[in-house]
């Protein structure tokens, strides 16, 4: 009875707060970022788009660069604390918003691929004259970071994967859904449904006020009169994630790799499309982390107990300690 009452109170509070969430501009023009934002024009499929990125320069450079790649439901802004800490240690930090995300352009028609996103990321490094960098990727950014390291090993000093998705091929268990299905699913999103997903999949049922800012961006988009553009890009990137696995190529990685895996994470695309028995076999990060570490030559696995899908947000100290140690190694 107490659990039902608590759940009801949480729902009432969420409904009340959702009314106060403002409209998020399509390219986050009304959302502040922790550092100045630059833009690079990128030519793709006959069109030119603007790709946003932050370039955080340390006061006392150590000559090393770290690139931070965001997940699907986030933007570069959520790397603010990570960038600040690493910059204080002398690292130059580059934080892109991929095309279709954050402050970057939202195309109405684009064939998404991890190869395209990796190439765009390389264009930023080339523009800035950066020859080599450590590539850090979270969630979808982990799939992108892997693709970047495979495409550009000469530009990848080290690789860090923080609770990356794509450690398994969901196509083997989940029935394919067309892009229109993903689009309709995104168009039905609400503040309450987005929060419920994040609460369950990211934070293990324990919500903290500091998580609101990342929820509000997504929820605010659903209130924008042009939300269909966001929903369509989201549908396209869901299809990219589902149909372009990287897990079969881990053995080809040629760079020193660190896996930081929150052990409570159970994220998997399409769990709601299969039976409970099959769903229970998906997104088992404790096992997937070990399996992936065994596939990547010479990789290091750090397991974070009682941490979910977003270690650098949920428990920053647990996340940053192994990252700093790994970056210091020759």
Structural class: alpha/beta
Using the alpha-carbon principal axes, give the shape. Answer: globular
Question: Any idea what the CATH superfamily is called?
Answer: Alpha/Beta hydrolase fold, catalytic domain
Number of separate domains? 1
Largest sheet: 8 strands, mixed
Overall pLDDT metric: 94
Order of strands across the main sheet: 1-2-4-3-5-6-7-8
CATH domain class: Alpha Beta
State Rg.
Answer: 19 Å
What features would you describe in this structure?
The chain has twelve helices and eight strands. The N and C termini lie far apart (56 Å). A hairpin with a 2-residue loop joins strand 1 and strand 2. The protein is of the alpha/beta class. 40% of the residues lie in helices and 16% in strands. It has a single domain (36-328), classed as Rossmann fold (3-Layer(aba) Sandwich). Helix 5 (179-187) crosses helix 8 and helix 6 packs antiparallel against helix 7 (212-221). Strands 1-2-4-3-5-6-7-8 form an eight-stranded mixed sheet, with helices on both faces. One of its GO terms (biological process) is acylglycerol catabolic process. One of its GO terms (cellular component) is membrane. It comes from Solitalea canadensis (strain ATCC 29591 / DSM 3403 / JCM 21819 / LMG 8368 / NBRC 15130 / NCIMB 12057 / USAM 9D). Residues 65-182 form the AB hydrolase-1 domain.
């Amino acid at each position: 009875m107490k659990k039902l009452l608590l759940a009801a109170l949480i729902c009432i509070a969420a409904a009340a707060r959702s009314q106060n969430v403002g409209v998020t501009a399509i390219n986050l023009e009304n959302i502040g970022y922790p550092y100045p934002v630059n833009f690079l024009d990128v030519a793709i499929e006959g069109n030119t788009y603007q790709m946003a990125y932050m370039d955080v320069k340390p006061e006392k450079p150590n000559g090393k660069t770290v690139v931070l790649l965001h997940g699907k439901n986030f933007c570069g802004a959520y790397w603010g604390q990570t960038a600040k800490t690493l910059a204080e240690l002398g690292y130059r930090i580059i934080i892109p918003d991929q095309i279709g995300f954050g402050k970057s352009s939202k195309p109405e028609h684009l064939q998404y691929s991890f190869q395209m996103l990796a190439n765009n990321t390389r264009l930023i490094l080339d523009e800035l004259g950066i020859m080599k960098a450590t590539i850090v990727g979270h969630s979808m950014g982990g799939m992108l970071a892997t693709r970047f390291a495979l495409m550009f090993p000469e530009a990848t000093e080290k690789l860090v994967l923080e609770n990356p998705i794509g450690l398994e091929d969901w196509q083997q268990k989940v029935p394919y859904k067309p892009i229109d299905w993903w689009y309709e699913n995104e168009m039905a999103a609400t503040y309450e449904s987005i929060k419920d997903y994040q609460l369950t999949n990211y934070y293990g049922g324990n919500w903290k006020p500091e998580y609101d800012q990342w929820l509000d961006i997504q929820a605010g988009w659903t209130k924008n009169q042009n939300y269909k553009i966001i929903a369509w890009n989201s549908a396209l990137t869901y299809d990219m994630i589902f149909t372009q696995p990287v897990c079969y190529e881990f053995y080809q990685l040629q760079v020193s790799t660190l896996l930081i895996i929150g052990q409570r994470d159970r994220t998997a695309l399409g769990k709601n499309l299969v039976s409970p028995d099959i769903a229970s076999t998906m997104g088992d990060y404790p096992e997937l982390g070990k399996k992936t570490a065994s596939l990547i030559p010479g990789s290091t696995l750090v397991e974070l107990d009682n941490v979910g899908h977003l270690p650098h947000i949920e428990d920053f100290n647990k996340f940053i300690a192994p990252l700093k140690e790994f970056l210091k190694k020759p």
